[in-house]
Amino acid sequence: MPEVSSVQSAPPIPVLKSIAPLARDASAWLTDIWGVMHNGVVPFESACRACERFREAGGIVILLSNSPRPREAVAQQLDRIGVPRTTWDAIVSSGDVARSMIRAHSGGAVVHLGPERDLPIFAGLDVERSEAEAASAIVCTGLFDDTRETPEHYAERLADLAAHDLPMICANPDVRVERGGKLIYCAGALAKAYEQLGGRVFYAGKPYPPIYEVAFDTLESIKAGSSGRSHLLAIGDGIHTDIAGAVAVGVRAVFVASGVHVANELDGDLLDKLFPPDGPRPIAAMTALTW
Questions:
Q1: Could you identify which of 70, 140, 188, 238 might form a hypothetical disulfide with 113, taking C-beta atoms 3.0 to 4.6 angstroms apart as the criterion?
Q2: Percent of the chain predicted with pLDDT > 90
Q3: CA 131 to chain centre
Q4: What is the 3-state secondary structure (H, E, C) of 1-29?
Q5: What architecture does CATH give domain 20-95+207-286?
Q6: Is the per-residue pLDDT at 105 higher than 60?
Q7: Could you report how far apart the first and last alpha carbons of the chain are, in Å?
Q8: In CATH, what class is 101-203?
């Protein structure tokens, strides 16, 4: 008898030109920022307009970001890039969740791996930055120079930190993002390398539950009853962050193709490769967030 595959086929993932049909029964969007709203340099006008149209119709837009910066700093960055404040109601960042983890080390010291632009993550917290010998944890916000460095540049540093048995707080679980058409490494890449050395890592952002719980609480603070999972829509370009995280907490997800995962035309065959039937799958895909 012919062998029967144990993996069942899944319905095809539709490629949409407009988010409008899915917006009709959604009370709120949990929208990724980098890769959906902008590319780190310029805003995506169609995505900004889509969010504005959704809000005009009574919807709530929560920008759910794996940025290692607190929400105020993320808002300022959006202002500089040109993403209008009319596109969102609130921001929930990985940096905010990481700050709650850092507070567990109040009165002590931590090692900071990341550029100076991420220092706002420590603002107002009772922790000092030090070397490994005096620290109780590592706070990883990214690479010191993500324009040229890769995780390989940190092999010796990470090995030394692992030898001190320091837990790592990863303030940005993204492994790579697209900045102005170029892929750059993020804190998640260093965290994965640290885990391979036997290091313990605590992740603050997507796809892990803590950031979604903050998002749900934020929705309820804006409008009571707005956090019902069946009426939420997550929109993002990260397969292992945005899509996997949303599905894990019972929220429908829409995949927006970016250079992180898609270099060619978006079609059914590619989507089936990106989202196997036995894994988390979005309900639809788009080449860009468009109304």
A1: 140
A2: 82
A3: 28
A4: CCCCCCCCCCCCCCECCCCHHHHCCCCEE
A5: 3-Layer(aba) Sandwich (3.40)
A6: yes
A7: 50
A8: alpha beta
